[in-house]
Every structure is written in structure tokens, then in C-alpha cells.
Write a structure and sequence with these properties.
Rossmann fold; 7-stranded mixed beta sheet; 9 helices; about 15% strand; globular; transferase
């Protein structure tokens, strides 16, 4: 991956020298965008690899609490994509209250939230986690196994959320008791996909009609990106109520059968 950050700038220099006039500015702008994307990709993968390596080597294998504590220890001194213990406690509170049997996680990152969710599910509970990046999915799955969970308790799908959502029925229908849909959905991927994915989950009837909590992670650097979905929720005033509590999570409680949807905004 380091070769990308070294070789591509040399290529761009050649291109800019060859191209002149008005085209030069356009090529330069496109190049800078491509380089920014490449660097984000490299840095993101380095973060995932280094996080995984630290947790894998420092935690006690088979001990859930040790895995989570090691994640938190790493985050104290290194950049991390993990939600952290404060937001994690909010998540724990929701899981204990909702007591879900089927959970959908969009955005796996390093596996921290997956482990946090799995440890609170009932014995027959199941987590389906969707992660776009193959490396993140692979390393996150290994961390889940290191924490002591079995493949029968979770499923990792490597694809975009838009591609994954239409396929999720196949993971629910074999179990007639839970064929209604998911009791809990956690969104921590691309915030621009929050609203489209919520609409897709409703359209595919994947949200349990008798009650489903949808959690939207609101990271400080992208809190404004939640505006679109919150505006959508506010337009459904007959079905939603919003209250502010924290600056980390937005909780939407969905209940189709009664015709009421309660939205607890925790940002």
C-alpha cells in the first residue's frame, strides 16, 4: 500500500507537465482528490491492521471483557475507529432494554461493537454485520472469534449496505420465530447512507413490526451528516418524537403494528 503513496505522485507530476492550459487545473484538481482518497485508504487500513495486531496480541483470548478493555487501552494512545466505552455504555443500555434476538450491524470497523453486541445477546441470538472493506471484515471477524464467539452466533457480509439489505431475508426466514425481522439495527458506516438504508429496511420489511430500535452513531466529526435523516424523521411527526440526551447516538424506536414510532435522539 505504501507504494501507492510514493508512485502515484510521480505519475501526477508527469501528467501535469504534459497537460497545459485549462486542462492542467482540472487534472491537478482530480489528482489531488484521488491522492486524498488513496491516503485515506492507506491510513484507514493501517489503523485497522495496527488495532487488530494490538488487540490480538495483548488480550486474553476467549475473554470478552479482556478484548474490550484492550480495545479501549489501544484507543487511549492511538487513533481508533472504535466507538469507545462511553458510547458503548449507551449501546449496552439499549441492548439490555430491547433484548433483541436478531441484530443488524452496518459498519464493522475493527470488531469492537460486534463483540460488545454479541456479549449481550441471548443464547439463540444472532448478529449479522455488514462491512464494505474486505480487510476490515476479515480482521474484525477474527477478533470476534478471539473473543470466544462461534460462527453460529454471527455472520459477516462483505459488501455495501445497499447490496446487502435486499439479501437479508435469507438469514431470517429459516428461523420462523424471528422471521419478522431485526429487533435492533446499528448504523455506523457512511452517514450519507443512513436514510437510504433506513428506507430500504422498511421497504424490504426487515424491521420487526412489533418493535425495533435503530441506533445511528453520531461521531463528532460528522454530526452534521445526520441532518438529512433527522429531518426525515421530523417530517413524520405523527409517528416520531425526538429528545436530546447525549452527543453520541441517535435512537429510533420503530413499531409498525401500533402505527407509532418513537425516536429518542441521543446526540
Amino acid at each position: 500500500m505504501w507504494l501507492i503513496a510514493v508512485s502515484v505522485p510521480l505519475l501526477s507530476a508527469v501528467i501535469i507537465i504534459v497537460v497545459s492550459g485549462r486542462c492542467r487545473d482540472k487534472v491537478s484538481m482530480l489528482w489531488h482528490r484521488a491522492l486524498a482518497w488513496a491516503l485515506r485508504l492507506v491510513r484507514g487500513r493501517v489503523c485497522v491492521r495496527s488495532t487488530h495486531a494490538f488487540v490480538f496480541s495483548e488480550c486474553t483470548h476467549g475473554k470478552v471483557d479482556s478484548v474490550l478493555e484492550t480495545f479501549d487501552l489501544y484507543a487511549e494512545t492511538h487513533p481508533s475507529l472504535c466507538i469507545g466505552p462511553e458510547t458503548g455504555e449507551v449501546l449496552d443500555e439499549v441492548v439490555r432494554r430491547v433484548r433483541p434476538s436478531r441484530v443488524l450491524e452496518l459498519g464493522m470497523h475493527c470488531g469492537y461493537t460486534s463483540v460488545r453486541l454479541l456479549r449481550l445477546l441471548p443464547p439463540a441470538g444472532r448478529l449479522i454485520t455488514v462491512e464494505l472493506d474486505p480487510l476490515t471484515a476479515e480482521l474484525g471477524e477474527e477478533i470476534i472469534l478471539v473473543a470466544g464467539f462461534k460462527h453460529s452466533q454471527f455472520q459477516v457480509l462483505t459488501s455495501s449496505s445497499a447490496e446487502a439489505i435486499p439479501t437479508l431475508h435469507s438469514f431470517l426466514e429459516p428461523d420462523q420465530k424471528t422471521s419478522e425481522g431485526f429487533n435492533l439495527v446499528l448504523m455506523d458506516h457512511d452517514p450519507q447512507q443512513y436514510l437510504p438504508d433506513l428506507l430500504a429496511l422498511e421497504r424490504e420489511e426487515l424491521l420487526c413490526p412489533s418493535g425495533c430500535s435503530i441506533l445511528l452513531i453520531s461521531r463528532k466529526t460528522r454530526a452534521e451528516d445526520l441532518r438529512e435523516i433527522l429531518d426525515h424523521v421530523r417530517l413524520r411527526a405523527d409517528r416520531c418524537s425526538i429528545k436530546t440526551e447525549l452527543r453520541s447516538v441517535v435512537e429510533i424506536s420503530y413499531q409498525k403494528e401500533s402505527g407509532n414510532v418513537e425516536c429518542d435522539n441521543k446526540i
